[in-house]
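Hey, weird one. I pasted the NLE domain-containing protein sequence into the form twice and got a warning about non-standard characters only the second time. First submission, copied straight from the form history:
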Amino acid sequence: MATQIPQRSAKRQRLADEKAAREAALLQAQGQLGPSTETLVIQFQSGQDGSLLGPTINLPAATGQKELQAIINQLRRQLKQAQGPKKRSIDDPDASSDDDEDDDEDLPYAFHVDVQQLAASAGIESEEKQELVKSNARLPINDSLTQDVLNAQAAKKLGLSQEDTLTVVFEPQAVFKVRPVSRCSSTMSGHASPILCSTFSPTGSLLATGAGDKTARLWDLDTETPMHTLVGHSNWVLCAEWEGRERKLATGGMDGEVWIWEALDASFTGRKGWLSRSGKQVDEEWQAEQEQLDNAEGGDAEGKPAKMGVKQRRAARSAAPAGKPLRGHTKWITSLSWEPIHVNPTNPRLASSSKDGTVRVWNPTLRRCEYVLGGHTASVNCVRWGGEGAIYTASSDRTVKVWSADGGKLIRTLNEHAHWVNTIALSTDFVLRTGPFDHTGRATSSSPSYVQPTDEEAKASALKRYKETTGSGSQPETIITGSDDHTLFLWPPQINGSASTPKKPVARLTGHQKTVNHVAFSPDGKKIASASFDNSVKLWDASTGKFIATLRGHVASVYRLAWSSDSRLLVSASKDSTLKLWDPIKTFKIRKDLPGHTDEVYCVDFVADKVASGGRDRNVKIWRH
């Protein structure tokens, strides 16, 4: 029997590779070694629809992301030229020369190789395939094809060589780029109990927080200072949600009440609308109050209202907006969701879910309940108002229900989960939440950011953004749900979809070892992030539900997630008292560890290049670049 030479250890192999690389570099510097002639056969595939772009091409193995990006942009231009201007003018007669100029600009792309696809082409058994993709189902291409793909452990296990045709998947990225947060710029105290929820306003200039001290607070993000304290709830404030035009804020509490807070001046957006009252407003309110008193008392002798004192006037100017309670629920409020602006820009309605097993749809202006959705038999844990005329509810009765927003008729019940359904997310969540405002906080490019758009402008801007997100109907709104059964279900479009059986899920997403606590679509609708009590965050493909990667770093339960507006960054809040900023595109690793809280972090939100967080230590922290 022949003696077998033992394989080198990983360390010996690495040292040998480094030595060989040094010798090659020395020979090349002395002119005794020419450039590398290694090439790979590449086939480009779209990550959006799976279509192939162009023929297979030979590329040097040292090709990196920048070179691949240039090739894709060139192929894209050639394809548009091949289609011809006539076809484009037929498809879109209103297309202008500006669109052609935009086509000439290079767009940013991210590239990766799908490990599952490689395993399938190599004929690997399903058990071995699962082992290969346990922590990472993608090989992102950043530096070079050799370094990121050929030298990867998964590729070596599959026996990938230079002779194989490599399918490189490309995905377009946002044109603008959000700077990664790296430091705590402000620590703001004010709440007397743990902070339970936080949410940015649509323009990103205000932050609303709710806490166990029975109050909600507004914070000015331009100056990073406290603004108003909203007093009215008689128990913990559990959730808060901004109206899409930033004129109203809704809060829900453990007292079973929903409170509506209106901007002090509805003609402005952002902090301008919620700042202190003007002297004119104070005088008008005082006059109206005095006239009411006079009418009640039958008028006074002199007929002149008493004059407001300086102290009283100052207090009236800086007073917080008055709230209006909406009563009807018998147990605490679990979730809130506003009607989208592109559907109703003038007076959007509000849906509130409760532990009493019902969802109520309110008219905030008339302060009345329009109808009650009462089909669930246990607590309704989450409600989402979709952009295509549907309301989605997730309940502890293990079902997800789809309702018509026009009258509240039940459309269908989705009942695949085996335990409580905790969370639900829409692929259009980001654009519905920000309404008519883009990432710069403007509704229209020509208007200043502080001017409130008219109803027509707001509707047109919101509808345009919604159509861009859904591909004008080619990528309808989809939902994903997370449960105590440790799984997630990705469902086909429930409205305007082409699925023959919308009750059958697209995919069952397994991998978490404990309760799935929160799930969120990326703003571009291409990825899904899920947080669990198993201390991990997982990434999934939003169109197929395929597993992408596991983000490990937290040492305790992960409570909340938030994506950056360009979908290139992800932040998570955990019981371990830290926030972690992740790279969900290239490395799938921690980009920045953000310690600073002294106890559990319950809530986090991401806007522009700022992150706001709050938790058990009762402090609001603002993190920025």
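That's the output from the first submission. The warning seems to come from a hidden character in my clipboard, not from the data itself. The chain has twelve helices and 37 strands.
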